[in-house]
Design a protein that fits this description.
35% helix, UDP-N-acetylmuramoyl-L-alanine:D-glutamate ligase, 2 domains
Length: 605
């Protein structure tokens, strides 16, 4: 296997707008490289006027006071793309090749028959037979089952660390991963990913059973089913005290449903209920949704604990930094006297996971820990607080360090990466954005899966741009109205990233741009369609005057199709500089954990 690793570009000082890596087609890349001779490349003569035209177009779109032809000649261009995912340990090559041959619904999307017992659906009988051949490992350990549409991974991490602080041997199974498939299975008192050697040995031990099962099921076993069965087998072999299992949302069912015999508590944002077991409701929910959950729990004789009832008075007190590491200082106060009595008061908790939504996830995990304590589990207040404070997950409200930003070829900007991909998680992201400099300017770099609600996601992020009207009642009886502070992004760069190694589920940058333009129109936000980065290499593309037909009040929308995510980030940095040199500049990379993975991989390598 030949792997090309992209050399690191020299950092770009965005106070001196002079560099924007371009990864167009091979011809254009060679053209750019020829403008700046590099060792190993032959210098050829191309039409400089063509390049200057492209630069003038970019300059006028950006609202620059003058073109940047001269500075553009210092363009840093790489002939090789950066790898978008972590290179797995070579000891796993056989295992990964084996798994690659299975159906991967994470890559291709959930089939329309997902809720049926069919070859293309999620036939629970198929999974039951596989587990039986493996000795029913799921019945050999206690489990906490986390279900829902958002916050599952963070809640699992909070709860895992609480239990580890008390000395329990914890297994944790979540998805997706950022760099290595091993991240999906974490083991032991340190919570490290399963080692390559352990995973390889397990695969070698059960490969015969897997071969038989796949043959018996006519090749219908999926990647997720096989890997889940392996995780259960490993938890059984390791004799974990408890396994925390995140449910993959596959419409009405999935293979995690086989944890019925081992479950202690079900945490829920959308709950999977079990007869007689405590149900911890996260959320917060719409009242009608919570009513349905409580009715179902009552029918199953399942006590309900709501993390957000009147007895839970928790809040984010302030946002601080320890060097370059941000954290939020929170108060957690829980007093519940309904179905289950519990009490906890933690006046100062330093959460590294940012945003009010992460406080909600922490409270859900804390309520679950208190349920376990009521069942006789040894869990001290100190272990709960320390577990919460130690929890940190990459790609969730993560600000890159100054050095990491420089590795992406920028300086003088802040970069926030977050795997938000739903309307609710977009709301959580905007809350994190509000924590930082309120006078700063922002640009979004967005890539999403094709099966997400793009319009709701875009509207939520853009809704912060609306200049809200503040109404105040003065004692003398006058109503005073003045514009509030909006969060209008200066630019939105729509790009593409691979999902599970492929692009069949990736929404095209062009389609995403159209959605964001529609969302802008619905919210009455003035947006300018800047076309695509690919268009700027054509002579026919119109050159706008450097004085600019684009107003500084317009949100610039650009599609970056088939480009490295690093190009999109650098373009965002350049456009931000063009709009406001003197203000603090922020770039938000979001839309999925897959684009976040690409960014963090570029930083890592």
């Amino acid at each position: 296997m030949l792997v090309w690793i992209k050399p690191l570009p020299a950092p770009i000082d965005v106070s001196q707008p002079r560099s924007l890596p371009q990864h167009f087609d091979a011809k254009f890349a060679a053209f750019v490289a020829a403008l700046r001779p590099q060792r190993g490349f032959q210098t050829r003569s191309f039409g400089l006027n063509k390049m200057i035209g492209i630069v003038r177009t970019l300059s006028s779109f950006s609202g620059l006071s003058k073109p940047i032809e001269k500075s553009f000649l210092s363009l840093s261009c790489s002939m090789c793309r950066s790898i978008s995912s972590f290179i797995e340990d070579p000891r796993l090559n056989d295992f990964l090749d084996y798994m690659e041959k299975l159906k991967n619904y994470e890559r291709v999307g959930v089939p329309k028959d997902a809720g049926t017992d069919s070859v293309d659906g999620f036939d629970l009988g198929r999974m039951r037979r596989l587990l039986q051949r493996l000795g029913n490992p799921q019945s050999h350990f206690k489990a906490i089952h986390i279900a829902g549409t958002k916050g599952k991974g963070s809640t699992a991490a909070f709860l895992s660390n609480i239990l580890r602080e008390e000395g329990f041997h914890v297994g944790c199974y979540t998805s997706p991963h950022l760099f290595s498939i091993r991240e999906r299975i974490c083991l032991g008192r340190n919570g490290n990913p399963v080692s390559a050697e352990e995973l390889r040995n397990l695969f070698c031990d059960v490969r015969g059973i897997l071969d038989l099962s796949i043959e018996t099921e006519a090749g219908s076993l999926s990647h997720f089913e096989v890997f889940t069965a392996l995780a259960f087998t490993l938890f059984s072999q390791q004799n974990v005290d408890v396994a925390i299992i995140e449910k993959l949302r596959l419409r009405s069912r999935d293979v995690i449903s086989f944890l019925a015999n081992g479950a202690i508590v079900n945490i829920a944002h959308i709950v999977l209920l079990r007869l007689g077991l405590e149900v911890v409701i996260g959320g917060p929910f719409e009242p009608q949704i919570e009513h349905i959950i409580r009715e179902k729990a009552f029918s199953l004789n399942a006590p309900v604990v709501s993390a957000f009832d009147a007895g839970s008075q928790s809040s984010v007190r302030c946002f601080e930094r320890d060097g370059e590491v941000p954290f939020q200082l929170c108060k957690i106060f829980i007093e519940n006297q309904d179905d289950i009595s519990m009490f906890l008061h933690l006046p100062e908790v330093k959460l590294q996971m940012l945003g009010e939504h992460q406080l909600w996830n922490a409270i859900s995990a804390t309520c679950t820990a208190l349920c376990l304590r009521n069942q006789g589990w040894r869990l001290s207040d100190k272990s709960i607080q320390t577990g919460l404070e130690k929890t940190w997950l990459p790609g969730r409200g993560q600000y890159l360090t100054k050095r990491e930003v420089e590795k992406l070829g920028l300086c003088g900007v802040s970069i926030l990466v977050d795997g938000a991909h739903t309307e609710a998680s977009a709301k959580g992201l905007t809350d994190i954005m509000k924590i930082e400099d309120p006078d700063g300017i922002w640009a979004f770099v967005v890539s999403m899966a094709s099966d997400k609600d793009h319009i709701a996601f875009a509207r939520q992020l853009l809704s912060e741009a609306i200049e809200k009207v503040v109404v105040a009642f003065i004692e003398v009886g006058f109503l005073v109205l003045w514009p509030g502070l909006g969060r209008r992004p200066e630019a939105v760069i729509l790009t593409e990233s691979t999902i599970a190694g492929g692009k069949s589920r990736t929404a095209s940058a062009k389609a995403l741009k159209e959605v964001w333009l529609v969302a802008s129109k619905l919210l009455e936000i003035d947006a300018a369609d800047m076309g695509s980065l690919h268009q700027w290499k054509n002579d026919e593309f119109p050159i706008v005057s450097s004085r600019g037909d684009v107003s500084n009040r317009q949100v610039l929308m650009v599609a970056c199709q088939n480009n490295d995510v690093q190009d999109s980030i650098q373009l965002a940095g350049m456009l931000l500089h063009a709009r406001a040199v003197e203000k603090h500049r922020f770039i938000v990379v979001t839309g999925s954990l897959h684009i976040v993975s690409s960014v963090l991989a570029a930083v890592k390598h």
